[in-house]
Amino acid sequence: MKIKMGLEEFEVVLINGGNQNFQGQNRDTLEFVFKKDEYNMEFLYDLFSNEMITQNIVIIDDEKTYYKTDYILKISMEVKGVKIEEETPESKEVLEERIFIKMGQLSYIEKQLSKLNIV
């Protein structure tokens, strides 16, 4: 799976959608999961901090393309261990560190205020 932001494409392991209350608003969220060994944490922090880039995100999944707009609020960014393989009698479980970035979408009112240059 890939995402396109600005002029560049990035490999993602998984994208989770959801809802979360953030800054007093119930928001749609997208959580992007990256392999830690493929991307630098500082690079991703800067990338997802740039509202001009996160304004329009294109998700490319096999043959389907999804367009997401206004996911400009960085809710969280963290590194977590993810179990890749279960423990068996012959081998230990396999963990991989991944970077999780959760972005929140602007509310309708925030979008309208932004158009009026109030926010």
Descriptive report:
The chain is elongated and about 65 Å long. It has 3 helices and 8 strands. The chain has helices at residues 41-49, 51-54, 108-115; strands at residues 2-5, 8-11, 14-22, 25-35, 56-61, 64-69, 73-85, 94-104. The strands form 2 sheets. It has a 4-stranded antiparallel beta sheet with strand order 2-1-5-6. By secondary structure, it is an alpha+beta fold. The protein has one domain.
Strand order of the largest sheet: 2-1-5-6
Classification by helices and strands: alpha+beta
Tally of DSSP helical segments: 3
Mean pLDDT: 93
Residue share in helices? 10-25%
Q: What is the total domain count?
A: 1
Q: Which value, in Å, is the CA radius of gyration?
A: 16 Å
Q: How many E-type strands?
A: 8
What share of residues are in beta strands?
Answer: over 45%
Q: Write down the secondary-structure element order.
A: EEEEHHEEEEH
Contiguous low-pLDDT stretches (5 residues minimum) are none
Q: What separation lies between the terminal Cα atoms?
A: 34 Å
Dominant shape:
elongated
